Amino acid sequence: MRFGRRAGMFWLITVGVAAGCSSEAATGPLADLVGTWTVVQLEYANQANSSEVVNVLTLGRTATFSVTNEGDWRLIVIRPSPVRFEIDDGTLTLQGDSLFLSETGGSGPVGFAMDLTGETLTLVTEEAEYDFDSDGTEEPAYFTMAMRR
């Protein structure tokens, strides 16, 4: 899974409800994540220059992240003009305060530090890239995604 921009296009994690949700409710820690979340922050920070930060939502995009009872996830990012949907999905696993997202067709899981406080979920990873200077080469980035119900 890549969290960056390639060929002038943003590639982001996106979440939405997967088709065919089970009527059986999730239990344990997963139950706290099930549902649709409104993304309020999608931020990349340059690992080599922490003052260089891009919050993709300030570029006019909106996003939702959804988790099903089965542990499937979908991220949907909507670009307003021209209207374009960017969708990623896959499965997730939880291990303590860490959440691992495996993207369908991806190379393996990406680990996130997870904080769930009330109705706010925050995920942070160092396993991201973003083309901060628009030269076609993605630089290593910290990625933060914050969501609210």
What fraction, in percent, of the residue positions are helical?
Answer: under 10%
How far apart are the termini?
A: 24 Å
Question: Helix and strand succession?
Answer: EEEEEEEEEEE
Biggest sheet: strands side by side, in what order? 3-5-6-7-8-9-10-11
Which structural class best describes the helix and strand composition? mainly beta
Alpha carbon gyration radius: 15 Å
Helix count, DSSP H or I runs of 4 or more residues: 0
Q: Please describe the biggest sheet, giving its number of strands, its sense, and whether it closes into a barrel.
A: 8 strands, antiparallel, barrel
Q: Flag low-confidence runs.
A: 1-23
Whole-number mean pLDDT: 84
The percentage of residues in β strands lies in over 45%
Any descriptors?
two-stranded antiparallel ribbon; 149 residues; mainly beta
Tell me about this structure.
- The chain is an all-beta fold.
- The protein is built from no helices and 11 strands.
- The chain has strands spanning 4-6, 9-11, 35-46, 53-55, 62-67, 72-80, 83-95, 98-103, 110-117, 120-130, 139-148.
- An 8-stranded antiparallel β-barrel has the order 3-5-6-7-8-9-10-11. Strands 1-2 form a two-stranded antiparallel sheet.
- It is globular.
- Residues 1-23 have low confidence and may be disordered.
